[in-house]
């Protein structure tokens, strides 16, 4: 049975469970449950702190895990990132009170408060910088105002927490994070991993693409399919009306409105968009 760690709480917990549900797996119904067996799919899920997940996977006690890229780096565990799951996106950045620091080079010699000392120390070492790292558990935005540190390094999603604390970001992000599927090795995966990854990739594609269908005059087909090339190639079927064809193709959800406008301008009609629930490409 494949054993998978998933976040029990926090930002990544609900979307991780939802993605697994969308991929056809059973998930806990009670948020207090710590284990959920999915007999039909031969998988067992363990609900753990996202910060601990890399440790269980790196030791080989669990086969796979879902955690944040920043948490994986912070753990220092040499587990492999197998798939970017497309949710839980955030940057990990330096921040300081407005007007105090202007560039990341000025971090040298400062006191840095963070809940991610592993990420910060790795970054300092890679850039040959020396600084004091003050390890805190959370609410690090308070550390500067309370005199514990000069700079913070923390997760920034909307930036609202920084603004409230009177802090501004300094320099480029230290890293860009999102939820990732991790395993012990990039290759030599245990039985069942390839199927689970295909299912998750099916969910990712279904989330980012829609199915577009339209009717167009046959003499405009080349121009129309230029706008909707699909993944392999668009499906073209004859219409009962002489000189017209029906076209079906997958298009990126974020581009669908622009493409519909362009198709309409070209002369296409009966342009319909439908969601894709799941797929295997
Ligand atoms: N707005 C956000 N706040 C915190 N973490 C976020 C956010 N958006 C994405 N993440 C990611 O979630 C992971 C941190 O999750 P974790 O559960 O440890 O903290 P949390 O969601 O802040 O929960 P809590 O602090 O309540 O324990 C990291 O990978 C981080 O990059
Ligand atoms: O850029 P934003 O959208 O404001 O989100 C980022 C903030 O959210 C998280 O804090 P959380 O509320 O989890 O508190 P914590 O610091 O105690 O973990 C994170 O640590 C940042 O402080
Ligand atoms: Mg938090």
From TrEMBL:
Q: Which UniProt keywords apply?
A: Amino-acid biosynthesis, ATP-binding, Cytoplasm, Glycosyltransferase, Histidine biosynthesis, Magnesium, Metal-binding, Nucleotide-binding, Transferase
Q: What does this protein do?
A: Catalyzes the condensation of ATP and 5-phosphoribose 1-diphosphate to form N'-(5'-phosphoribosyl)-ATP (PR-ATP). Has a crucial role in the pathway because the rate of histidine biosynthesis seems to be controlled primarily by regulation of HisG enzymatic activity.
Q: Which gene encodes it?
A: hisG
Enumerate the transmembrane spans.
none
What biological processes does GO assign it?
Answer: L-histidine biosynthetic process
A GO cellular component term found in this entry reads: cytoplasm
Q: Which residues form the ATP phosphoribosyltransferase catalytic domain?
A: 49-202
Query: What does the record give as the reaction this protein catalyses?
Result: 1-(5-phospho-beta-D-ribosyl)-ATP + diphosphate = 5-phospho-alpha-D-ribose 1-diphosphate + ATP
Q: Which InterPro entries match?
A: ATP-PRT_HisG_long (IPR020621), ATP_PRibTrfase_cat (IPR013820), ATP_PRibTrfase_CS (IPR018198), ATP_PRibTrfase_HisG (IPR001348), HisG_C (IPR013115), N-reg_PII-like_a/b (IPR011322), N-reg_PII/ATP_PRibTrfase_C (IPR015867)
Q: Please give the pathway this protein is involved in.
A: Amino-acid biosynthesis; L-histidine biosynthesis; L-histidine from 5-phospho-alpha-D-ribose 1-diphosphate: step 1/9
Which top-rank group of organisms is this from? Bacteria
Q: State the name under which the record lists this protein.
A: ATP phosphoribosyltransferase
- A Pfam family reported for this protein in Swiss-Prot or TrEMBL: HisG
Q: Ranges for the Histidine biosynthesis HisG C-terminal domain?
A: 206-278
């Amino acid at each position: 049975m494949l054993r998978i760690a998933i976040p029990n709480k926090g930002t990544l917990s609900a979307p991780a469970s939802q993605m697994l549900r969308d991929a056809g797996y059973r998930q806990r119904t009670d948020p207090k449950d710590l284990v959920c067996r999915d007999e039909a799919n031969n998988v067992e899920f363990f609900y753990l702190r996202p910060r601990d997940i890399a440790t269980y996977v790196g030791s080989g006690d669990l086969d796979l895990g879902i955690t944040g890229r920043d948490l994986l780096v912070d753990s220092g565990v040499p587990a492999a990132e197998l798939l970017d799951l497309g949710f839980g996106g955030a940057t990990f950045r330096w921040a300081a009170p407005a007007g105090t620091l202007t560039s990341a080079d000025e971090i040298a010699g400062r006191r840095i408060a963070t809940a991610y000392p592993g990420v910060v120390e790795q970054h300092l070492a890679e850039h040959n910088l020396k600084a004091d790292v003050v390890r805190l558990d959370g609410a690090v935005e308070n550390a500067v105002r309370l005199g514990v540190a000069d700079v913070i390094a923390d997760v920034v999603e909307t930036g609202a927490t920084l603004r409230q604390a009177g802090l501004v970001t300094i320099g480029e992000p230290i890293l860009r994070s999102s939820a990732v599927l991790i395993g012990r090795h990039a290759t030599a995966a245990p039985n069942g991993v390839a199927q689970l990854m295909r299912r998750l990739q099916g969910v990712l594609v279904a989330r980012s693409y829609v199915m577009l269908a339209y009717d167009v005059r046959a003499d405009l087909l080349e121009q129309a399919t230029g706008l909707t090339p699909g993944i392999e190639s668009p499906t073209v079927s004859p219409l009962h009306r002489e000189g017209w064809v029906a076209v079906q193709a997958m298009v990126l959800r974020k581009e669908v409105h622009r493409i519909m406008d362009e198709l309409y301008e070209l002369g296409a009609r009966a342009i319909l968009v439908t969601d894709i629930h799941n797929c295997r490409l």
